[in-house]
Amino acid sequence: MEEFILSLFMGNKELKKTTLYQILIGKHTTSVLCYAYFHDLLPYFSALPTLEEEKFDQEIAKLVYNGWVRQDQQQLILESNPLSSNLLHTPVFRSLDFFQFGRKEEVCWRSFRFLLQAASFLGKKAEYVPLENAPIYTQRVREVIHQYGQDLPEIIYQETSHLFQHLTEEHANLLAQALSGFHQEGAAFFQLVPEKYEQTLWFTLYQSAAIHQLLAQVAKHPEYLLYKFLYPLLMQNYNQSMLQTRELIRKGQSIEQVKKQRRLKQGTIQDHLIEWSLLDTKFPFSNFLSQDKQNRLKELPQASYTYPFKELAESFDATFLEIRLYQIWREKQSLC
User: Helicase Helix-turn-helix domain spans which residues (predicted)?
Assistant: First the structure.
């Protein structure tokens, strides 16, 4: 745990203790999400949803005691980094994205494995023990088999082969060896994860990184059967209320119209728009920022997200939503 927390300081010499804890457990507020985004911590949002605050405090106390971190009220300041190598930022963990995939990664992976197993035995006389027997898995797989019939094995083979070609070799090998099918019995992750990652937390992160990379590839191919199969589960990773607001906005409704139709407060709609902007690489920022407003906000300081909002609003004559969306837009452009 200490090594993991120290890794979160990569590029951040200072982090707010309470907010860091809220990021790790996945406290779903706009302020926490934005803090995570601007400090490059969004991939770890809800990485440790069951982490108790007392346990977190103990880990921070160890870092302070060892002289690696200094605490000044609620600020954690990196003093020295004893890590000879930062595991979290090595290629094998770079695909971690708990914000997009963490909430439903297990059910997505189990659904994927079960569909592949069922497809591999389709049309063969051999009996097999299904990987899953809960209706959440069996019913959906039956529907796919009924829809595609004998064409299913070839479709699944082609799509899976293509997806795995775009995974890192290490992730592809891990996931492939965990798959079960005709003449193949998949191994459990604990049998496959390299010894150096056997520590509980790194073990979890290692398998999550592989699953997240697979799901990220699936998300790039809406034409695939596998995308259509996993789509309902992938959507459950997101704030469902935000998705409803997004749908209405996409249909051309104004913020005021959505507010009245959904009977939500202005602040809630703003939160939805900000969360949508964090998720979507194609978010229509210009729809919410006039050209005049964009020209004014170009003068925002580079690290304006660290400034008090009241100070920014007075200086730039802009609303909270306009300032926050512009900050996110500019950050996204700088990453391109």
Answer: 241-326
Of 86, 50, 81, 83, the C-alpha closest to 68 is 81
Buried residues in 93-111 as b, exposed as e (16+ CB within 10 A): bebbbbbbbbbbbeebbbb
Q: Which two tokens stand for residue 50?
A: 């069951």
Buried b (16+ CB within 10 A) or exposed e, 178-198: bbbbeeeebeebeebbeeebe
* Integer Cα distance of 111 and 90 in angstroms: 28
The Cα 71–Cα 53 span in angstroms is 16
Helices (H), the chain: 2-7, 17-25, 30-38, 53-65, 98-101, 105-121, 135-148, 152-165, 169-177, 189-192, 200-219, 225-235, 240-250, 255-262, 266-279, 291-297, 309-316, 320-335
**Euclidean distance between the first and the last CA atom of the chain, given in angstroms as a whole number:** 32
What are the tokens at 1? 């745990």
| Mean of per-residue pLDDT scores for the chain | 93
Indicate the SS3 state at residue 14.
Answer: strand
Paired tokens of 126? 């051999």
C-alpha span between 210 and 226 (Å, rounded)? 17
Task: Tell me the pLDDT tens digit for each residue of 14-56.
Answer: 999 999 999 999 999 999 999 999 999 999 999 999 999 999 9
Phi, psi dihedrals of residue 15, rounded to the nearest 5°: -135, 150
Confidence of residue 85 (pLDDT cuts 50, 70, 90): low
Whether the CB-CB separation of 64 and 77 falls below 8 Å is answered with: no
Contacts of residue 264, defined as CB under 8 A and 6 or more positions apart, other chains included, come to 241, 245, 258
| Chain position carrying tokens 């069951």 | 50
pTM above 0.70, yes or no: yes
- Residue 23 DSSP one-character state: H
Q: What pLDDT is attached to residue 1?
A: 86
